[in-house]
C-alpha cells in the first residue's frame, strides 16, 4: 500500500546532463530550500516527505518509481534553469502515471518565467517567490476541497485563462522558521566540494549547506538571486539561531564540512563577528571546516582572523574580471586594486581563497579576457572557477540578449557551464564560440601552471597534485557544435 501523505517534495536529478564527465567531481548538496519548506509545512500540521533524486543519482525514470510509493495530495518540484530538463521530464511522468495528483514547481526558473513554464511543462501551479506561505495555503485549500485556489504567490491556468496572484509574501523574521528538515534527507549521501577536503585526506563525507541570511541588496546584471526574493534586500537570522542548527548538524549528523550559502555573508562585518564568537563560545570552531562567499569591499585581516578562528577555512570572492571598465559594465562596484588588497587580507589570516572569474562580460574583448586570466595567474589563489556569462531567465542580461538578437539556449541544459553544448551569451566583440574556447583554455592554463602546482604542493602535499593531474586536468569537456550568431 502506498504511503498517504499531504506533500511530497522532489529535487530532480541531472548530474550527468549538467556536468557530463565531471559528474563524479561535483559536490552533492542538500536541497536546502526544499528542506526548509518541508519543516515549515510540518510545523503547520501537515505530513511531508522528500525525494532527493540528485543525491540518489536517479534519472527521472528512476525517480518516478520512488514517487509512486507515495499517495500525496500535492507534489512540489524545485528546479533552477539548468535542472529544468530533468524537472520537466519528471513532471510529465507524474502527470501520465498519477493524473489525480496536483503538482507545483518552485525555484528560480518558475519565478522568472511563470507563464511560459505553465505553458511548456506538465505542472498545475508555479510558485513565484518563496514557497513557505503558498505551499501551506494551497495544501489547506486542497485538503478541505476548496475550489478557490487564488493563493498569493501562485500562478496557474484556470481553463484558458492565466491567473497570476503575484509574488509570495516574504517571511521577515527568519528566526520564526524552524530548522531545515534534515531528518527527511539521506544525509550520508552528501559530499563536500573536492577542494574543501584537500586538508582532510579527500574525505568529502559529513557535508551540509547552511544559510544565515536570505536575499541580496545588490543588482549585478547577470545574477538571478532576486528573481525569487523580488526585492533587493537581505534578511538575517540571529547568530544564536544559526549556531544551534549548526550544533544539531555536528552532533546528530556528524557534519564537519559546511558551506555557508549566503550571497552576502560578509556584508555586515559586526554581524559576522558575532556569529563567529557564538561558534567559538560553543567550542565548534575546531570541529568545522567551513567556507563562505565574501565581498572584496567587506574584507579585513581582523575579520578574516576571527572567521578563521571559527572554522571558516575557505573564502570565495567574485573577482569576475581583470579590467575595471568591464567590472563597471555589470554594476560590479570594485576595482582590480581592491581585489588585490582583499586577497592579501584573506591570505594574511591563513584562509584559503577561491577566485571566481567570468568570461564574456558585455564589455569583454580578447584583450580584457586575457587580462582576467593574467590576474588569476598572478593572484594564484588555492582554487579558481572560470565561468561563462549566461543570460538566465529573469535577469537584465536576458532582456539585453533579446533586444540585441543574440542567440539564447534552446535547451535548458545549455545554461550549464560544463555542459558539452553550453551556450554563453555573446557580446558585440566576441562570439559564443570565442568565449567558450577562451574559458576552456584558461582553465587548463591556470591549473597546469607550475607556479600554481608548486603552491598547492607546499600547502596540501603531493597527493593533491596527483588529484589535480589525474582527476581534473584529464577531464576535458568535449564541446559540441555551438550555434553561431
Task: Flag low-confidence runs.
Answer: none
CATH topology of the largest domain: pyruvate-formate lyase- activating enzyme
Counting DSSP H or I runs of 4 or more residues, the number of helices is 19
Q: What percent of residues adopt helix (DSSP H or I)?
A: 25-40%
Explain the overall architecture.
This protein is an alpha/beta fold and 485 residues long. It has 2 domains: 162 residues, Cobalamin-binding domain (Rossmann fold, 3-Layer(aba) Sandwich), CATH 3.40.50.280; 282 residues, tm_1862 like domain (pyruvate-formate lyase- activating enzyme), CATH 3.80.30. It is built from 19 helices and 15 strands. A 7-stranded mixed β-sheet has the order 2-1-3-4-5-6-7, with helices on both faces. A 6-stranded parallel β-sheet has the order 8-11-12-13-14-15. A two-stranded antiparallel ribbon has the order 9-10. β6 and β7 form a beta hairpin. α12 packs across α14 and α18 crosses α19. The chain is globular and about 65 Å long.
Map the helices and strands.
Layout: E1 3-11, H1 15-19, H2 32-43, E2 48-52, H3 53-56, H4 60-67, E3 70-78, H5 84-97, E4 102-106, H6 108-112, H7 114-120, E5 125-127, H8 132-143, E6 154-158, E7 161-164, E8 207-210, E9 213-215, H9 226-229, E10 234-236, H10 239-253, E11 257-260, H11 269-281, E12 289-294, H12 301-309, E13 312-320, H13 324-328, H14 336-348, E14 352-359, H15 366-379, E15 383-388, H16 396-404, H17 432-448, H18 450-460, H19 462-472
Parallel strand pairs: 1-2, 1-3, 3-4, 4-5, 8-11, 11-12, 12-13, 13-14, 14-15
Antiparallel strand pairs: 5-6, 6-7, 9-10
Helix pairs in contact: 4-5, 10-11, 11-12, 12-14, 15-17, 18-19
Amino acid at each position: 500500500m502506498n504511503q498517504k501523505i499531504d506533500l511530497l517534495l522532489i529535487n530532480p536529478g541531472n548530474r550527468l546532463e549538467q556536468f557530463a564527465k565531471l559528474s563524479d567531481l561535483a559536490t552533492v548538496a542538500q536541497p536546502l530550500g526544499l528542506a526548509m519548506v518541508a519543516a515549515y509545512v510540518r510545523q503547520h500540521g501537515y505530513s511531508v516527505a522528500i525525494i532527493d533524486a540528485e543525491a540518489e543519482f536517479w534519472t527521472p525514470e528512476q525517480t518516478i518509481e520512488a514517487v509512486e510509493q507515495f499517495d500525496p495530495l500535492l507534489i512540489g518540484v524545485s528546479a533552477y534553469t539548468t535542472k529544468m530538463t530533468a524537472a520537466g521530464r519528471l513532471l510529465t511522468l507524474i502527470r501520465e502515471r498519477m493524473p489525480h495528483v496536483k503538482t507545483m514547481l518552485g525555484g528560480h526558473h518558475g519565478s522568472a518565467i511563470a507563464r511560459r513554464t505553465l505553458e511548456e511543462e506538465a505542472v498545475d501551479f508555479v510558485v513565484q517567490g518563496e514557497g513557505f506561505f503558498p505551499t501551506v495555503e494551497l495544501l489547506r485549500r486542497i485538503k478541505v476541497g476548496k475550489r478557490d485556489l487564488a493563493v498569493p504567490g501562485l500562478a496557474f491556468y484556470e481553463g484558458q485563462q492565466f491567473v497570476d496572484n503575484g509574488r509570495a509574501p516574504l517571511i521577515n523574521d527568519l528566526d520564526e522558521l524552524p530548522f531545515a528538515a534534515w531528518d527527511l534527507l539521506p544525509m550520508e549521501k552528501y559530499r563536500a566540494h573536492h577542494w574543501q577536503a584537500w586538508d582532510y585526506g579527500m574525505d568529502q563525507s559529513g557535508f551540509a549547506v547552511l544559510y544565515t541570511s536570505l536575499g541580496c541588496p545588490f543588482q549585478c546584471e547577470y545574477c538571478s538571486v532576486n528573481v525569487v526574493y523580488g526585492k533587493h534586500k537581505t534578511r538575517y537570522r540571529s547568530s544564536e539561531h544559526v549556531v544551534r542548527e549548526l550544533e544539531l548538524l555536528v552532533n546528530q549528523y556528524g557534519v564537519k564540512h559546511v558551506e555557508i550559502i549566503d550571497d552576502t555573508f560578509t556584508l555586515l562585518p559586526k554581524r559576522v563577528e558575532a556569529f563567529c564568537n557564538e561558534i567559538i563560545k560553543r567550542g565548534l570552531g575546531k570541529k568545522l571546516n567551513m567556507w563562505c562567499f565574501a565581498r572584496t569591499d567587506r574584507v579585513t585581516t581582523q575579520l578574516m582572523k576571527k572567521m578563521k578562528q571559527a572554522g571558516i577555512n575557505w573564502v570565495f570572492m567574485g573577482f569576475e574580471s581583470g579590467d575595471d571598465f568591464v567590472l563597471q559594465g555589470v554594476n560590479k562596484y570594485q576595482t582590480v586594486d581592491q581585489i588585490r588588497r582583499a586577497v592579501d587580507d584573506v591570505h594574511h589570516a591563513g584562509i584559503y581563497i577561491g577566485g571566481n572569474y567570468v568570461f564574456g562580460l558585455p564589455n569583454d574583448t580578447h584583450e580584457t579576457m586575457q587580462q582576467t586570466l593574467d590576474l588569476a595567474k598572478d593572484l594564484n589563489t588555492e582554487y579558481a572557477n572560470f565561468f561563462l556569462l549566461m543570460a538566465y531567465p529573469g535577469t537584465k542580461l536576458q532582456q539585453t540578449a533579446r533586444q540585441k538578437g543574440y542567440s539564447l539556449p534552446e535547451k535548458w541544459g545549455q545554461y550549464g557551464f560544463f555542459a558539452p553544448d553550453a551556450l554563453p551569451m555573446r557580446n558585440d566583440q566576441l562570439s559564443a564560440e570565442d568565449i567558450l574556447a577562451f574559458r576552456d583554455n584558461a582553465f587548463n592554463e591556470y591549473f597546469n601552471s607550475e607556479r600554481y602546482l608548486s603552491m598547492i604542493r607546499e600547502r596540501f602535499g603531493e597527493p593533491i597534485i596527483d588529484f589535480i593531474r589525474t582527476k581534473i586536468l584529464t577531464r576535458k569537456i568535449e564541446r559540441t557544435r555551438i550555434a553561431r550568431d
